[in-house]
Design a protein that fits this description.
single chain; 257 residues; alpha/beta; Rossmann fold; 2 domains; 4-stranded antiparallel beta sheet; 9 helices; 27% strand; globular
Length: 257
């Protein structure tokens, strides 16, 4: 990709992606590239396909048509496990295994890959500092942690192998507003400091604006418009984009008043 004379390598590239479940078309001929170090936020109403699109990147969903390239490699059934090691994945509510401690959740994949116990222990402690998780809570079960702490553990697990790519599927959506605002700022700083390539799903336009280098607004399995918040607000591609931005801005105003 070349922008303003500068060339950026595409770390994630989706070409002609379609996916149907019976008569339901979850994705319709989606093409999207995400550059190295870019935070690309997928947003849209419920059922628009944004989470399905995210899951195609790590092979949890295999498209009916089209290709997925990750770090220059075309994703297929034979290499999906290897490619997943390049991707950190965090979802709403954390997705932690309830019978494993916070530490065991964080180091699970690294242990399965045969990483030395000492290096796993040190990496988990380093991630505690990065994600502001109290070390003395590493041996607690997920049910003993607050929602914010569970989300921090989920992020630590996603970062355990230091992957170049992060997939974040509404990672802060289940938190109360005060905790969510705190974690939004912390997560943005973590992403910027680490220089990861990020695909971030949210239904909240202010949150999208807070994180995004680029916003991709979806509708009915298609991309309605991609660009900055200012482009979506000031130069909407169609009436849906105009109405979506207006509705989100009205909701934000009502929440603040």
């Amino acid at each position: 990709m070349i922008v303003a004379g500068f060339e950026f390598s595409l770390v994630v590239e989706l070409s002609g992606i379609s996916k149907s479940y019976g008569s339901v078309h979850a994705l319709r001929n989606i093409s999207l590239g995400v550059s190295e170090g870019e935070t690309c936020v997928l947003i849209g109403p419920s059922g628009c396909g944004k989470s399905t699109l995210l899951r195609t990147v790590n092979g949890l969903v295999l498209p009916d048509t089209g290709t997925v390239r990750v770090d220059g490699e075309t994703l297929n059934e034979s290499n999906v496990q290897t490619i997943r090691h390049k991707i950190g994945y965090s979802i709403q509510d954390g997705g932690l295994f309830p019978h494993l401690s916070a530490r065991e959740n964080v180091v699970l994949l690294a242990r399965d890959l045969g990483k030395p116990a000492d290096s796993c222990r040190q990496r988990a402690e380093d991630l505690c500092e990065l994600c502001r998780f109290p070390r003395h809570r590493l041996d607690a079960l997920p049910g003993e942690l607050s929602g914010g702490q569970q989300q921090r553990v989920s992020l630590m697990r996603a970062l355990m192998l230091d992957p170049p790519i992060l997939l974040l599927d509404e990672p802060l959506g289940a938190l109360d507003p005060m905790i969510r605002a705190e974690l939004q700022e912390e997560l943005r700083q973590i992403i910027r400091n680490l220089g990861k390539t990020v695909l971030f799903v949210t239904h909240d336009l202010p949150e999208a604006t807070h994180f995004a280098d680029r916003i991709v607004l979806m509708r009915a399995g298609q991309i309605a418009q991609a660009g900055s918040f200012e482009e979506l607000r000031n130069r909407p591609a169609n009436d849906f984009v105009k109405q979506f931005v207006s509705a989100q801005e009205s909701l934000t105003f009502r929440q603040k008043s």
